[in-house]
Amino acid sequence: MIKAKILVVGPCESGKSVISNFLADATETSGGEYHPTQGVRILEFESNSNQIGARSSAEVELWDCSGDQKFDECWPAIMKDANGVVIVYNPDVPTHERELDMWYSHFVVQQALRETNCLIMGHVKPSAKNLTVQMPSSMSKVQHVQTNLEEDAEGVRRDFNSFLAKLLSSMSRKQDQEELSIIQ
Ligand SMILES: Nc1nc2c(ncn2[C@@H]2O[C@H](COP(=O)(O)OP(=O)(O)O)[C@@H](O)[C@H]2O)c(=O)[nH]1
Ligand SMILES: [Mg+2]
User: Fold this and answer.
1) Helix and strand tally (H, E) in the chain?
2) Which range of residues forms the domain containing residue 41?
3) Each residue of 122-157: pLDDT tens digit?
4) In what side-by-side order are the strands of the sheet with 3-9?
């Protein structure tokens, strides 16, 4: 089975750990209190979702990273061999908007990943007021979804699965090309 390493990055307290737990079906034990992630947490799960016309059965490794930039020394190790990146931010926090470019440039552009290997989640918490954020022009081609676990949890899973399906098909195309180039 194909294995995908997907990083979940973005500003502190945007909801990266909550979303990662939800996608991996891990039980939430924090009881609403905020526990900042130290460095990185790795969640593994198998995905068998049925996206039309695309293969999406895979082993997924979600790397739920800390939003604290004091861990930036670990970033090269974390990024090694990553296939995809999910950037989570809170549209209600103005500083998050300014941070987006930094996360995108470090984790996507500098890793030579393509726009299609990245998904941006504007994660809406129950108290949210501001829901629309203008993406920096450098990220205008990246898929941007709004996630709301309280009101539409299955929508979050659907968005992630359709991103995963696209990611897997691009990974298997790349694998086929590499195999072909070995034979030739
Ligand atoms: N009620 C509710 N709380 C949330 C939601 N998403 C995040 N939170 C809370 O926001 C805080 C930060 O979330 P967390 O996932 O730990 O942020 P991270 O720093 O990006 O990993 C935590 O206290 C969560 O309980 C949500 O969808 N609903
Ligand atoms: Mg966290």
Assistant:
1) 4, 6
2) 3-183
3) 999 887 776 777 888 889 999 999 999 999 999 999
4) 40-48, 57-65, 3-9, 84-89, 118-123, 143-147
**Tokens coding 25:** 């079906």
Side chain identity, residue 58: A
d(CA 54, CA 51): 6
Residue type, 165: A
**Start-end of H helices in the chain:** 16-23, 75-79, 94-104, 149-183
Cα separation of 108 and 179, whole Å? Answer: 25
Whole-model pTM: value is 0.92
User: Is the Cβ atom of 125 under 6 angstroms away from ligand 1?
Assistant: yes
CB 20 within 8 A of CB 41: yes
- Please give the structure tokens belonging to residue 9: 């990055």
Q: Which of the listed residues 9, 13, 152 should we mutate to test ligand 1's pocket, taking the one with most ligand atoms within 8 A of CB?
A: 13
Ligand having the closest approach to the CA of 35: 1
31: CATH: 3.40.50.300
The number of folded domains in the chain is: 1
